[in-house]
Design goal:
The structure holds two protein chains of two kinds. Chain A is mainly α. Chain A contains eleven helices and no strands. Chain A has two domains: 98 residues, Alpha-helical ferredoxin (Fumarate Reductase Iron-sulfur Protein, Chain B, domain 2, Orthogonal Bundle); 63 residues, no CATH class. The chains are: A mainly alpha, B alpha/beta. The complex binds iron/sulfur cluster (2 copies).
């Protein structure tokens, strides 16, 4: 808590990068009332995760600290904070934008990378398995659901779209050495 | 009556097909025609994909929406996450012409175009706003004598600016639908609390999110509820599979049945627990099924 913040380490560009997401510039309106963090269900379990502190750090441009914080990935996007903020700060939108900057810098949890890869391969974040196929049959449903799972052309469309969006490159990215 | 294109998402068809089957059964009884949204993909999951890359999120969501536009039907979702992704993408593209053009450039390469002609609906708000509690009551043939804990989940009601479903702190529409089945919706501590699954948190920090599940279960049990009723297969998975994970980790067994609203309504319409896949949870629901099973032998 008593660590000194060195202004030479701050990145004003990082702030601008966050503000590319419309509305997030409102983090400058935060008056530190703690309404967001005090109601956060995740902070109740893990006090190191503090949305208010995160957005303050973002406002200061503390890029490295934020992008490399393990707590960046704790938010469940329940939106309780965003609903409560008396200043209209879009807390969740801002946090998701910070995550996106992290991902675009190659910082991503392996487990999340797997989910991304799953969607690239199958079009589903949670693909079908044998156990569920059995259950589907018992229920009188088709063994394979009428999604991209059943229609190869549709899956190809999704694969192409993900490629056009550059998602395959994002997922393949490794963290660039600073 | 009306027709909707049925968007399945991932977890319902690929983990909890009982929710898919139940939705088809109850909607048919209510005279709402459902047509499969063929070739749809992951919505994509809002927390994870909005975290990764907004363009990817938006392009995949918009492709799913164009499939329903091509059918000329509004979309029915049975999942808060799918609802969140598809409603948000639909609104953004309807309101922002430049964004729409950008997305359409991508979609044109796979032969689709976003036009902005359809709406995205969630089964709970659709039943409440379009079908109505009275009509549902009339369709109930086996009123349920159950005490249930309603779990709205976050993205059904929040962000309120986009959802337009009233209070997110103290909503009542879902409880009214539950009570239309004869069941009693019991109040419990921190009822609107998040299940912990969203935003990629279940994937990232499972153990911490399981503490949120434990909290919810303790509160539900303290209120003497027979089961939890949810509106989202991902909450459903977190609260059901989560119990098996908690058992493994700390050897604590809650044995709480978790049902999607479509399954509860199905029971009240006289379908058997097996037809609705209530026996297919990862938690053993046998006791619960025995208890309700006897009522519906015709
Ligand atoms: S609720 Fe809003 S104003 Fe209050 S601390 Fe959080 S972001 Fe700042
Ligand atoms: S959206 Fe995230 S930061 Fe905000 S209250 Fe929920 S878990 Fe906490």
């Amino acid at each position: 808590m008593s660590d000194t913040i060195k202004t030479s380490n701050l990145s004003p560009e990082f702030r601008e990068e966050i503000f590319e997401q419309p509305g997030t510039e409102k983090i400058t309106l935060c008056f530190n009332c703690t309404g967001c963090s005090s109601g956060c269900p995740m902070a109740e379990q893990e006090p190191e995760f503090n949305i208010r502190k995160f957005l303050r750090m973002a406002n200061l441009g503390m890029k490295n600290e934020l992008l490399n914080s393990p707590y960046l990935w704790y938010c469940t996007t329940c939106y309780k904070c965003q609903e409560r903020c008396p200043q209209g700060v879009p807390n969740v939108d801002a946090l998701l934008k910070i995550r996106t900057i992290a991902v675009h810098n190659g910082i991503m949890l392996p487990a999340h990378k797997k989910v991304g890869q799953m969607v690239i391969n199958s079009g589903h974040a949670v693909p079908i398995n044998d156990d569920t196929k059995e259950k589907r049959k018992k229920l009188g449903l088709d063994e394979v659901p009428p999604t991209v799972h059943r229609f190869p052309d549709a899956l190809n469309e999704v694969k192409k779209l993900l490629h056009i969006a550059g998602f395959d490159i994002i997922i393949a990215k490794k963290e660039e050495k600073k | 009556m009306s027709k909707l294109s049925f968007f399945l998402g991932c977890i319902a068809p690929n983990r909890y097909p009982g929710i898919e089957a139940s939705t088809k059964k109850v909607m048919e009884k209510l005279g709402v025609e459902l047509e499969d949204l063929k070739g749809a993909s992951c919505c994509p999951a809002p927390g994870v994909f909005k975290s990764f890359d907004r363009t990817t999120w938006l392009s995949m969501a918009s492709r799913n929406i164009t499939l329903s536009e091509e059918m000329g039907d509004d979309i029915l979702t049975i999942c808060n996450g799918c609802f969140g992704s598809l409603v948000d993408a639909n609104l953004m593209l309807k309101e922002d012409a430049a964004l729409k053009e950008e997305v359409n450039k991508m979609l044109s390469e796979i032969g689709h175009e976003f036009r902005g002609t359809q709406d995205v609906r969630h089964i709970i708000e659709y039943l409440f706003q379009e079908v109505g509690v009275e009509k549902i009551k009339q369709a109930v043939t086996y009123p349920l004598e159950l005490k249930v804990a309603v779990h709205y989940g976050c993205h059904l009601v929040k962000p309120t600016k986009e959802r337009q479903l009233g209070s997110a702190e103290n909503p009542t529409f879902f409880d009214k639908l539950v009570e239309a089945t004869g069941a009693k919706s019991v109040d419990y501590e921190d009822k609107m609390a998040c299940c912990g699954a969203g935003g990629g948190a279940r994937t990232a920090v499972l153990d911490t999110t399981l503490k949120m599940v434990s909290n919810k279960l303790e509160h539900v049990i303290a209120a003497d509820a027979d089961c939890i009723i949810d509106a989202c297969p991902f909450c459903h998975l977190q609260l059901d599979v989560g119990q098996t994970e908690i058992k493994k980790k700390i050897d604590k067994e809650y044995g709480m049945p978790v049902l999607h609203y479509s399954q509860l309504l199905g029971l009240a319409m006289g379908f058997t627990p097996e037809e609705l896949g209530i026996d297919m949870n990862f938690v053993d629901n046998r006791k619960f099924i025995e208890r309700i099973g006897g009522v519906r032998n015709e």
